[in-house]
């Protein structure tokens, strides 16, 4: 799985910060090209080192960088397949949230090597949800901040007004609190179930 993740990180950094910065960071790491082949296995430690080096170079917290990666995966046109996978979860943001527990299985259907951590959703009250993401030992990065960025981008995609809070959780889980203030706050991005068709 980490080869796919590393390739996504490479695309994110090149698109967001430019090729020279990417090459500068890579020059300081002893990482072979195979680490960025989507279907090639790669040690989780390589991903952890890559994130740490990028965060240090950009003077940013690793969690903030991972959140931006999650937003990129949804909002960037080259990642349309990720957006489509998520949009199939529901017709509005509330339905999308309710489908999050199925996301790891849907992701595996799309790409068998993509093994996302388990996700559980808990209703806290009217419009308030708690999303729990299982921690995976040796994964190389935390998925919670990535999911936080994806949720933020998906709220924009649906036109929903939300407040999101990341909680580090404990040794077994990460927690994201979602406050859905207005599910139809703005016009969402156009989405057509039929791939390649232009909506009228």
UniProtKB/TrEMBL annotation:
It comes from the Bacteria. InterPro entries: H-NOX_domain_sf, Heme_NO-bd, NO_sig/Golgi_transp_ligand-bd. Residues 3-124 form the Heme NO-binding domain. This is Heme NO-binding domain-containing protein. It holds the Pfam family HNOB. SUPFAM superfamilies: Ligand-binding domain in the NO signalling and Golgi transport (SSF111126).
